Amino acid sequence: VPGPQADDHAHVPPRAGELFRAHGRRLTAQRRVIWEVLAEEPDRHLSADDVVARTRDRVDPSTVYRTLELLVEEGLARRTDLGDDRAYYEPAHEHRHHHLVCERCCRVTHVHDDALADLGTRVASAAGFTLGERELTLFGVCGDCRARGG
Ligand SMILES: [Zn+2]
Ligand SMILES: [Zn+2]
Ligand SMILES: [Zn+2]
């Protein structure tokens, strides 16, 4: 059961047209298709190959890879490395999200920065280390898998 700090609110990515115009980029038909695949499932984490599979009939794979990198460079999409050589793409969120990766079912969920409370302060005082702005990836067992037991 998600607590108050779980990321249970809806994330609605901006429409492609406005977004690309705001970034001074041309919205080609292929870029629109790729953006819409990401935006359709804003809380899913799609690999480049997932995006290729979803756009196979409309965009060639090399354009998918190039466009995903462009979206990341422009700050429109976020690429996250979730271990085991898995890199995932999602629309950039307007606020910071950390990733929770279930080691049993591989599901990835979000948790907001405020759920980590004073982690940064604790790390700083324990190790003299200042956490940066990057998001964190935490591995463990999700609520569903824990409920199933084992
Ligand atoms: Zn959120
Ligand atoms: Zn994410
Ligand atoms: Zn799980």
Would you give an account of this structure?
- The protein has 150 residues and is α+β, with helices and mostly antiparallel strands.
- 37% of the residues lie in helices and 17% in strands.
- It has 6 helices and 5 strands; from the N terminus they run H-H-H-H-E-E-E-E-H-E-H.
- The protein has helices at residues 16-22, 29-40, 48-55, 61-73, 119-127, 143-148, and strands at 77-81, 87-91, 97-102, 108-112, 137-140.
- Strands 4-3-5 form a 3-stranded mixed β-sheet, with no helix packed on it.
- A hairpin with a 5-residue loop joins strand 3 and strand 4 (108-112).
- Helix 2 packs across helix 4 (61-73) and helix 3 packs across helix 4 (61-73).
- The longest helix has 13 residues, at 61-73.
- The two termini are 18 Å apart.
- It binds zinc ion (3 copies).
- The site of one zinc ion has 7 residues, from loops.
- Residues 102, 104-105, 107, 142, 144-145 line the site of one zinc ion.
Outline the secondary-structure elements.
Elements: H1 16-22, H2 29-40, H3 48-55, H4 61-73, E1 77-81, E2 87-91, E3 97-102, E4 108-112, H5 119-127, E5 137-140, H6 143-148
Parallel strand pairs: 3-5
Antiparallel strand pairs: 1-2, 3-4
Helix pairs in contact: 2-4, 3-4
Secondary-structure-derived class: alpha+beta
How many H/I helices?
Answer: 6
What is the subunit arrangement here? Answer: single chain
- Nearest-integer average pLDDT: 87
Using DSSP, what is the number of strands? 5
**Poorly predicted ranges (pLDDT <50, ≥5 residues)?**
none
Proportion in helices: 25-40%
Tell me the strand percentage band. Answer: 15-25%
From the N-terminal CA to the C-terminal CA, the straight-line distance is: 18 Å
**Overall radius of gyration:** 17 Å
Q: Which H/E pattern describes the elements?
A: HHHHEEEEHEH
Q: Which sheet architecture does the biggest sheet show?
A: 3 strands, mixed
- Chemical compounds bound to the protein: zinc ion
